[in-house]
User: Fold these one by one.
Assistant:
Number 1:
Amino acid sequence: MSSNAIDTLETFQNPKTVRDFTIRIDVPEFTCLCPKTGQPDFAKLEIEYIPDELCIELKSLKFYVLTYRDQGDFHEAVTNKILDDLVSVSSPRFMKLSAIFNARGGIYTTVVVEHQKEGWSKITSVNTP
């Protein structure tokens, strides 16, 4: 992949930095290439994160994801690279990426990777009657 792909990612200021809140983004049409056969691999990306100072701008995320269309790499490598890039530009408190790949040769693959900012811990939910 072009080393400039990460440059397409943009962020904006978190409007409520004093509160933990979750942002969920689904990317239902992710594509990349199988490094062995060159055939297309299709996946749904599910991104869930708790921002710190910055949030990810969605249009730039769309263009970033498109850079993988002609790139061949294993599912595990692609998923970890995407998480690394998203964390690099946004420095979230927490981020989880699930890459749910379509069946290939009768086998389904889901790769789940997480990042947690050092020193941050999730506030436990309050149960109310």
Number 2:
Amino acid sequence: MEIMKAVLGLEDGTRVAGEGFGSEGECAGELVFSTQMGGYMEALTDPSYHGQILMFTFPTIGNYGVDRMNFQSARVWARGCVVREACPIPEARPSLSSFFEENQLLGIQGVDTRMLAIRTRVKGSMRAGLVVGDDDSDRAIELARETPPLSEVQLVPDVSCRQPYRIPGKGKRIAFIDLGLKKNMLVSLRHRDADVYVYPHDCTPDQAMESRPDALFISNGPGDPVAATHAVRCVRELAGTLPIYGICMGNQVCALGLGAKTYKMKFGHRGTNQPVQYKDGSIYITTQNHGYAVDADTLPEGASVIYENVNDGTLEGFEDTYLDITCVQFHPEAHGGPRDTEIPFFDTMFRRLS
């Protein structure tokens, strides 16, 4: 079988040749890395990776094939995939390579992902171009330099639902703003029999209140949280009116709605092994995917940090007990460790609403 050529180029001029898998073509986006060993399809189908080329640092990806049951959306949102090795003969199901080929997706393997991860940690996340089916490294670098930074691109409208919809339940009524939601968030709410009303990203405060909700929930999403202006407005105008909860970008949106600031991180947190410390000293291993963070020093009076990242001290969650706002930067619905945060986050949420 003939090996398909492929090359990855970074905006700083770095070029890495490898073997292509999937379909021939080209793409560009911010190159980011994830340290997870499994859950690769959950990551690839996470709408928060829209606009990015996703690189996995674990040496072999695809060892159990493509598990459609755990897709977080209906499609792969990452623009491209970079791995050291795409497992050619998985334990079960279609291989990652065959799935990429069937769905016209772009991937490159046989590259030094360790070197690229170290380079990203030193220089920060960079724009990248991926060419599959050719080894034109100049074209790959050109693609990287031509693609705009994430802060200049509107990504949320692409991943949000187009029209409101309802997932009926007999429990508490939740108004859910979809900025690029992961399926497991809805699963976690439905496990608690919530009556969920899902609204598009451009939902207004009046629309969010039409269902007479018991709480407002803001989802994750791609890109710069500052661009989620409609959701920020909902938080700003509804804070104090009803309880508000947020996850990932939802955490950032809630902070912005209260007047705090966010910033772009050097290379972000992505993977299933990020340690966070709760305010009582408890440590949890969490799943994360974010390149922006809330500046803890800009939180308004009344809001306090409840989770911190053990590695770098960045804000991983905050609350305002007076306004009844609780948010986390990590993904409690993703079951990242032996002491999962789904139960404390969602059970605490519904206990407060009862």
